[in-house]
Amino acid sequence: MKNTFGNNITITLFGESHGEAIGCVLDGMAPGVKLDYEFIDRMTELRKPKGKISTSRHEGDRYRIVSGVFNDITTGTPICIMIENENTRSGDYADLKKIPRPGHADYTAGLKYHGFQDHRGGGHFSGRITAPVVVAGAIALQALNAKGIYIGTHISSLGGIKDRDFADYITDIESIFDREFPVLDDEIEDKMRKHIETAASEGDSVGGILKTAVTGCPGGVGEPWFDTVESMISHAIFSIPAVKGIDFGAGFGFADMKGSEANDPLRMSGNNVVTSTNNNGGINGGITNGMPIEFSTVIKPTPSIYKEQDTVDLSKGENSKLKIQGRHDPAIIHRAAIVVTAMTALTVADILVTHFGTDHLR
Amino acid sequence: MKNTFGNNITITLFGESHGEAIGCVLDGMAPGVKLDYEFIDRMTELRKPKGKISTSRHEGDRYRIVSGVFNDITTGTPICIMIENENTRSGDYADLKKIPRPGHADYTAGLKYHGFQDHRGGGHFSGRITAPVVVAGAIALQALNAKGIYIGTHISSLGGIKDRDFADYITDIESIFDREFPVLDDEIEDKMRKHIETAASEGDSVGGILKTAVTGCPGGVGEPWFDTVESMISHAIFSIPAVKGIDFGAGFGFADMKGSEANDPLRMSGNNVVTSTNNNGGINGGITNGMPIEFSTVIKPTPSIYKEQDTVDLSKGENSKLKIQGRHDPAIIHRAAIVVTAMTALTVADILVTHFGTDHLR
Amino acid sequence: MKNTFGNNITITLFGESHGEAIGCVLDGMAPGVKLDYEFIDRMTELRKPKGKISTSRHEGDRYRIVSGVFNDITTGTPICIMIENENTRSGDYADLKKIPRPGHADYTAGLKYHGFQDHRGGGHFSGRITAPVVVAGAIALQALNAKGIYIGTHISSLGGIKDRDFADYITDIESIFDREFPVLDDEIEDKMRKHIETAASEGDSVGGILKTAVTGCPGGVGEPWFDTVESMISHAIFSIPAVKGIDFGAGFGFADMKGSEANDPLRMSGNNVVTSTNNNGGINGGITNGMPIEFSTVIKPTPSIYKEQDTVDLSKGENSKLKIQGRHDPAIIHRAAIVVTAMTALTVADILVTHFGTDHLR
Amino acid sequence: MKNTFGNNITITLFGESHGEAIGCVLDGMAPGVKLDYEFIDRMTELRKPKGKISTSRHEGDRYRIVSGVFNDITTGTPICIMIENENTRSGDYADLKKIPRPGHADYTAGLKYHGFQDHRGGGHFSGRITAPVVVAGAIALQALNAKGIYIGTHISSLGGIKDRDFADYITDIESIFDREFPVLDDEIEDKMRKHIETAASEGDSVGGILKTAVTGCPGGVGEPWFDTVESMISHAIFSIPAVKGIDFGAGFGFADMKGSEANDPLRMSGNNVVTSTNNNGGINGGITNGMPIEFSTVIKPTPSIYKEQDTVDLSKGENSKLKIQGRHDPAIIHRAAIVVTAMTALTVADILVTHFGTDHLR
After folding, report:
1. A–B: how many Cβ contacts below 8 A?
2. Could you say which residues from 343 to 362 on chain C have a Cβ atom under 8 Å away from some Cβ of chain A?
3. Which CATH number is C268's domain given?
4. pLDDT tens, position by position, C164-217
5. A358 to C360: CB separation less than 8 angstroms, yes or no
6. CA–CA distance, D248 with D200 (Å, rounded to integer)
7. Which among A104, A266, A296 has the least Cβ separation from residue B107?
């Protein structure tokens, strides 16, 4: 339903990049969760632009929680998270309605909203709208952590450079939260950063692939049709700007596998049933099997580049050229990682509360 | 919401593979659409198993439309599609609750339903449940066709063998509907069939990649957050059994592209704005741009194989072996293609009716 | 959402009075509930027309449960309930599209469906569509009973004749299920029946007021805004044909009360908190307080009467006269009572499952 | 869904009476509506407490629209309305968790939220949360007015004193918007005010009945089952605090009518079909017939009274006494009228946009 997602834990987004404020309403969180602001701040920091490979706009992202929390404890009523906008240089975006940027939503927004959209900085389509999502996701993730469920996302591939796979999930996930640049292998960071900086120096941008793991999620949750775990996660993840693909477990690699390789053999591990491989990414028939949920997300290169591009002048109905000005990220994948984690936390929390009831996550 | 999907055109699924009947309720179709039963039958045929590369269970799939249609014209009220089950050999499935099949939902169904699930033939998880989806999708697709919107799905890759890309969309889509095996390039069919037959002769199975195109969809529909066109389509598609990944346009290929390659330049084509490339698969910021919507779906190899597999005996809490009996498809990808088309038709119809109102598709 | 209702237990309706079949899909019932067919049959009987005060159409109402039940036990998957139509005399309804019946939906159906509706017997608007609702409600009610929650509905007022109030709730509710004509006071039945028969003998019809009680529902469920218990129940109840009003507890009587009379004083009863009066009908701020939920529903007189009525001829755009033929109930209130009970059971079950999780009602 | 309501135009509420801020997110409004702030302010004024018959807390209710509006024109994206809380005297409410007020939600909130609710001033249950609803409703109503649809609510009955019925709908509705005290008959105001003042002087409070009319709504919108116009309106209205009943048209009066009196005869009025009476309140079979939609809502007496009341001390599990301090309305019905109008506007707008599409109300 438009800007609201979720069955029993829902998030409703609002705001434009250069409007008065952005934010979201998180509804359905259990009462009685004492907020860990340090944890929320840590997640918020990971989304912020910084260093040479990010935009030079310094977003404050100072969030206010204006409802649903009393004495630092969730009340069970809707939690509204607000971020006032500041440091906006709207002049940079003056012509987007007339001269849409290739790869951006300028043209489609104009079609849908008949030119009434707030175009400044991408308006409601801006990646900036993910800032309150991260705060909401942090609240959900904190409650999941208390249940032994951990979620982390790293850059698994960028410009042909590949990070190692998750090994010890909990340790690896913790390590990602401690790093500004989300990779598992220390030596990979420099290579990836260099690749981004090279693209930046050419006025260009890069994309990449993120890999996410959810550990500790109990088996037996999700639905066989429509609200499968894959359906719910993909629904949430595809609303993150720049995401153009998602696959679970072996994913597109299944195309060249045989059933005998693809099936995950079941076996006993003590009293628990586990699978020897995890090609199905922790999900069979839309329902969790107790193994880690794993999926990959592809992030397209940031569409804002400094090279001259072909576009149209809608006011004249003519072809035109565009050279984007202003401040832009040559890559957003390192910042998108925590957004994917946050969206996943919200979705997993929703699935659990649907199954176990409204008080499950307190 | 569990077994119901859609905002304004909804589909609700019911049934078990070896129960009394399977079916669905399609709600929200406009009144006044004269049903083209020949078209529905053609789509239904494409889903049926046949030949050497399919199961030897001959499903009748004779559907009845028991409501919502009067004098062969839709009334605007819910359309219930029923398929009575017949030719069921339940004995084949006797031990699935005790000895779950690797790669199937037997184990997860047991967790979720506490052993009360109808396990015969996969029960509610069976691919057979897609039969009424195809009928519903055919009704939606017929209404879309009348608006100049066409949808087709072909096997783009299987065992390393690749079909050509869509070229002339409408002609190509029509050609798929005329073929039992959905490929664009005549010479590819034999190679793919041979690959499947080889796997079958080894008691094994194969997966592959499907590519879907939607042409004629107007620009400006969809939502920026949560109900993006990608979110809605992926939500629907991931509930098709065996789907483990989806990507739009260049999809996972974006990982190794630069922004200057990835962005689709805009240009005038007569009075229309088009893009020179279609890396974004017809969608920017979650909203259609008027170019063909294109996406790929990966289908994992059929988990039912005839080789001995490792599994567990849940009644004893011990490791066990399993050799599956009965009749099973060595590949389902050629049958899954029309299911993907049907699900896409339902989703696109829903998106259009949400935007243009309930009478749009009559 | 159109013909679907509920958050976590949902019901989807389909069918036309004189079409092939009517039915519903009940989704979200817990796995593991052994169906009590005797109980379902008893509820189904109470909805059936019989005797002098009902239509002479003998509806079979033989329901089939075609999915979601295995070995007479719910599986947790969607339960599709089907009733094939039989004994339909469509000829009686030939002119409804041209000459709409006052008080019926003939005219509004034509506006909405542009004349494509199945008009025979009211089509999708027919009270007959409540037959599968009663079956679904019986399944929900059986599960509620197992939790100590009981629901009953009696005729509290008809033609100025008033039944006594609920006294001993559980005994009274049981007594209603044992009576063909749902009143609490034995001596009232004759008077009410006579009133209906008198109206019938004049070719006229009557309405009345139903009172429903739900006992045993735990306190603390429901929502403060939008999905209040009153909102959810009223949403469901207003979709029953002929219902035109609902009030909870003292209801419209509050208009002439003072706060000091209206407030329900709290007091201890052993270790439990109870209220001395129940003017709020068991609900404060949209949330249950543990007292019986009580509400009244007004049923308008059956619009089908045998007196000549003023109407229009839509084919000519002229005023016209109509004398309804065929078989019709002079009152439906005694049959509507069990429908209100069934809808209430479905709604209460949904509210509980939303709060306590999907397995709560097994 | 909890604190969100609507199918295609949705409102999501957040906030606590004495928290940082209250507000709502209005999603689905068409782009291109120039906001009439004077109109919004006028509606907001009507909800504010004033004079002898209202609380002496002077709420600023200064709303900010922080998103979804650009250059005073709606953009089509979510409109977030914020009201910062000020002038809160929390000390007055210190014991509500321990000693719940009869007739209030204190006790039920404690059950649902396990004592974690923000109890100050009723928290999320406070009537104050309706302030942003009025702003959202004003935006919807302004768009409806532009389509010739008008909505008004007056006090039809209070303490046995009755206002006259709507006569000339548009003129009458306009007159209500011009009055601080919403009645149609000038001479009634004094009598009703006196009744309220008398109750106030006794430390008591009063309720009453509101009557709402919607004119100009086209026929043929709404749904036959579940999302009937009555279901949708009642769902929304019952979430307004203190509402305990609703009926449409003749409503509970149907109980003592015959079918021959109750049916609304159809007749031609020029080229239009109208009904001679409007007992059905503009709705047949859940669908509008083009006549004014009319319904009555009962408001219970304000539960905050100054008389000593029986209650319990939850900390001791003992009976207790309570004498409420602080500032409270002896009646809220005159302020509730505009809230009912606002909720109705949101619901009617939703029903129209569902039928005619997202751009209908621009």
Report:
1. 367
2. 354-360
3. 3.60.150.10
4. 999 999 999 999 999 999 999 999 999 999 999 999 999 999 999 999 999 999
5. no
6. 31
7. A266
